[in-house]
Each structure stands twice: as C-alpha cells, then as structure tokens.
Amino acid sequence: MFRITRGGNLKDYGHFLENGEFLITNPATPRRWWAWLAGRGPRALLSVDGQEEIYLDGETYKCSKLIYLRDNDTGKFWNIGWHPVGTPYEAFSARISPGELHLKTLVEQLEASLSVKLDQKTNEEIWQLSLENKSQTKRRISVFFVVAWQEKVSAVRLSRNTIIATGVSPEHSALNTQTDASELASYYLKLGSADSFETVKERFIGAWGSFSRPQAVLDGKCSQMIATADEDSLAVSQKNITTTRGTVGLEFRTGLTKPSGQAAAREMNWHWERALEAIALKTPVSEDNLAFNSALKYQIASTSDAPAEPLELMAMVSMTDKPQQFDQDITQMLSAQKTSGQFDSPEKTLDLLELIIRYQFESGNKNFLIESVSYLDSGSGSILSHMIRAIRFLIDELSDTNSAVVPETGRVSYLIRQVMPILENQGEHHLVRELESFLQALSKKVARQYRGGIWATPNRKGLIIAREQLWLIIGNLLEAKQAQRLFELLWRRLYSPVGIRERWPIQKDNPGCRGNGAVNAEDSALMMWVSCLMGQPERSYKIWQTLNPVRLSRLNLGYDGEPYLVPSLLFGPDHPRSGKSYQKENFKALVRLYLVLTEQMLGVRASPGGLRIEPRLPADWQQVNFSRPFRGADYHIRLHDPLQAKMGIERIMVDGVRQTGKVILPFSGGKHFIEVALS
C-alpha cells in the first residue's frame, strides 16, 4: 500500500523521461507541485492534488477541482488526486508535460487515469477520465467532479445543461458596486450526460461537514438545487457508471470566461506552437537542455494570455517569427501614456520603451514608428513621438533627483544607447546629439558619487542593491576599470552557492527573504549579463546552475520546487530555509533570464541590420546548437568552441558561404544554417 509520508530527497519523488516530461512517483512532494496549462485566453497553474490558479487579463482566480470516486456497493470513497480525503494509494504516478497533466492512481482495484489539458479552440479545460476495473466483480461507481471557487459570485444559474457562476470577483478585490459588471468573470461546468448536479456548497459538504467527508459523496447523491445569492456555491457534476472487468471513459469540460478577455484572446499567438517548435537548445549538458527546452521556454510562452505587462509581450516578440502580430497590443499599451511621457510608473515607462526598441530590432518594421496612437489625457502622436516623450520623461526624472544613482539610472542609460540608432535612422540627429551630451554628463555625475563600488553619500555608504548597480555596468556609465572593480565587489558580496542575493548587507529582520537577501532570478540574470560583458562566461554559467531546476533536483541542496519549472525566487543563503523555492512564478524575472541566456551567453540577438552573433560560452558548452525564428525565416546556428576560446570568433559560415562581420543579414523566409567557429 502506497502511503503518504513527507521527507526524503527530491530524486525520491520522480524523474525525467527521455522526452523531457517529468514523472512524479511519490505524491508527498516537499510542497505542492504545479503543472502549466496555457491557452489563447486564460492560463493556469494546476497542482497534482487539484488546486488551481487561473490568470486572465492580469487577474488571479483560485479554485479547487476535485474528483471523488465512490464504490456504491461498499460506500468507500476517495480522491484521484489524494487531497482532501487522503486515502492511501496502491499505485500512483503523475506525468507533467508542457501544457498537460496526466495522473494515474490505483485504489480498491480500480485504476483511474486522468488527463487534463486546454482545448486550444475553446479555451476550455478538458478533464478526460478513464476507469479500469481490475477486480473480477461488477462495480457500481459514482464519479463526482467538483469545481469549488474561492471568489465571491453574484449569481449561479443552470443554462443549457451548464452550471454558470456569474459575477466572479478575483480573490484580491472585493465585489462591490464600483466594479464594472462587464469586467467580471464567470466560471462554468458543462454537465453533459450527468446523472445529477449540485450548486449549494452546504448541501454538498453537509451542515458541519468538509471536503474530506462531503455529505453528498457519503450519501451517493446530489440535491440538484440552485444556490441563491446568499448561499455559498460551487459546481458538481455526478455521473454513475457500472463496469465489469474493463475500461470506461468519461469527460468533463470546465472553464473561466471574461468579456474583455474573450476580445483580447484573438488569434495572435497561435504562432506559439510553431515558435516553440522552432526554438531549441542543444548543448553537451543534458541538464541544461532539459531546463531550457522542457521548462523555461514553455514558462515564458505561458504568459501569452493577452499580455498584461510589456515584458511579457517582449518575450513573445522575441520568440516568434512574426512580431507584427503584436502591433495592436503595443499600441494599446502606448495609449496609456500621458502627453508628459509618463505611464503608471518609471518602471512601466522603461519596460514599454524597451519593448518598442526590441520590436524594431526583431521586426525591422520602420513603418510602425509613424503609426498614430492617442495619449491618455489628450491628443495623439506617432509611436516615434511616444518614444521621444518617454525618453524625455525619464531624463527629467533623473534630473529631478539629488542622487545620480537611483534604481532607474543604469537602465535609462542602456535604453538610450539602444534607441539612438533608431532615432538616427528617423532623422532625429539633433536629439541624438542631445542624448549623447546627457549620457556624458550622467557618467560624470555617477563617477562623483560612486567610486569603485562604494557609495560616496553618507546615507548609502557600502549599500549594495544588486539590480541598480548591475544596470550601471550594463548601461556603460562607468569607466572600464571602475566597472571591473564594481563587478568584483558585487560578486564577492552577492554570490552564494544558492544564487545571487538581492542586496548587501543583510538586515537582521527576516534575513534571506524578499527585499533582504533572497535570490531573485531577475537579479541573477543581470549578474549573468554583466559576467558576460566582463568576459567571465564561467561565472555566468555558475549562476545559471543555481537556477537550473533539473540540476537542483538532482543535487539535494534543499531545493523543494518543481524539477520541471525554473524558479523565479528562492530563500537566500542567510535564511533557515536557504535554497527553497519562495514563490511559483515571476514572469518578468523568467523573461529576463531567457533573454540573457539566448542573447548574452549564446550571443544570438536581433539588431537593426539582422541577427548579431557574439557568443560567450562556458567551458562545458564546447558545441552548441540553437534554433530560433527571425523575421519570417528559421535560423539553425551551431557554435563550435573545441579549444574553449569562449568568446572570440574565427569565422561565420552562412549556408556554406563565409561572411565578414558579426551581423547576419535577414532572409525573407526558409531555413538557414549558420556555423560559428570560436578562436
């Protein structure tokens, strides 16, 4: 009998299959493990024990989706996902593949096989259940499929054999009269050929009951009542089956809809399937291949529900061969800009500016800059004008502060340097000269305040904030020797075997937690970037290893997260739970990590003239194959480094022809093979 016990090494909970899927063999994982489901509208995290978080239009909705099986002859019942009844299994396995969850359990000689995935046409979750009777006797089984939401709802109704909970308010915002009804979501559960149903929570679990012993399951029947406005509600579909030795199949369909979400979830990214097939990494290290191909790129793709943030859209622009499909999303985001150039915050302004720059590099679409977009407060202007206003706003923000170094300083400098070639091509020569003068003055201001990595101002002396100081190097605001000294200081203070700390020194209260020395994937990615700029790809690779979930799961260093998901936040080395996962996802951090891996370590990045090749390879990557789409064509790139030169390029061959320079001119379509030899 398989019983639930906690503890043990991560490798005791499962292993990777040859195709990159992860097989969980022990349901007692160190913490709740999740699988990604991604579709055109919502995306979701679904745990093996039936807990779900659904993300739609920037909101988070939480619910439980449980399947109870009841033997009507003995009265015994259990869950397929173990929780919350807790019946011991005779056998258990859960297979996690990108976008799908497959679960198989054996209890009381009844084998249950469950497959959960999203219908890419309707965005419905499809729960396919098959039951195999392994005994010699006839079995009468009742199946209860339960959707129990945590959010408040305004009404529950039965329409066309579907239970619909309307007016669902997300967990973090109260349902009130100020909420626009058109923005509220609706859960639904299609009953199909159900024998019975339930919508009143108290009638399902009982007056004093719980989900571990629900009254309806004990009784073997539902009340078929519709919940009133003042009753807690849920949705239950009951199906009764009789089976001799053999297999019976059932299907349940459920989902979450939102009026605005349906409009936003148009056809834009079902280039994703093609893009994800086109993007692939192969190195001599199998752990790196698994982490990139079976984890990171799919986590990035899972941000694709009508992206709420510029950096999410930036990832999509960088992963598809047709960035133009996102024109409408970019212009919609730009319409939130005021004539002052400001968005919600300086960070949002930076993200949008970086998004437009990246779009220009990836698409080469110069006409995009002349499109007209309205401002939030009044009037309209070209996208180029929006860019210029954003730049001037950021410059004014820096000019208004007494300190030269604020969190945005280095990133502003980096983005100005990136945007200047675009402005030159648009004839904004005077503005480019103005920006050059601004950067020179800013560099001098930084040098006066900031010497060798030590703050010159009394209130910040010795303080290290990883993100803002790493951006100073990326933004090229320091002289070479000063940048090298700062890099070495940051490495000494921030690097640990667990990862890159957010700051130094660590305060006494809650050391190793977020904001006080936790390991953040975004900070780690920036340190990887700087390591590459400083000619230290080995250090960059060392940091990547602290975030590689496949490696972490095999080393038994205290990591408790999913071996098939790249962590975005870990408890820092100064915390009692050092190295354990802190949260499930931070998309912005994962996007930055993906971009640094592909553009800085592999050195394959879009530029105005084409694909620029500047690899910085660690010693373990003596030969790397990387494929990605770019402007309608597929590029298959092989990097050779037999002598471990790591950075210098001896030659570049494009479709068998040697070329000069590091930029590969764009092709209009087809497949193209690039050979790069390092020296």
What is this entry, summarized?
This protein is an alpha+beta fold and 679 residues long.
Describe the structure.
By secondary structure, the chain is an alpha+beta fold. Among the domains are: about 10-260, Distorted Sandwich (Beta-galactosidase, Chain A, domain 5), CATH 2.70.98; about 310-450, no CATH class. The chain contains 17 helices and 37 strands.
Please identify the top-level CATH class of one domain. Answer: Mainly Beta
CATH architecture of one domain: Distorted Sandwich
Largest β-sheet summary: 10 strands, antiparallel
Strands of the largest sheet, in order across it? 1-2-8-9-10-11-18-15-14-13
CATH topology type of one domain: Beta-galactosidase, Chain A, domain 5
Low-confidence stretches: 1-8, 172-179, 261-271
Strand-residue fraction? Answer: 25-35%
Mean pLDDT reading: 87
The outline comes out as: globular
Class of secondary structure makeup: alpha+beta
Helix content: 25-40%
How many β-strand runs?
37
- Identify the CATH homologous superfamily of one domain: Glycoside hydrolase, family 65, N-terminal domain
Distance between the termini: 59 Å
How many alpha or pi helices? Answer: 17
What is the CA-atom radius of gyration, in angstroms? 27 Å
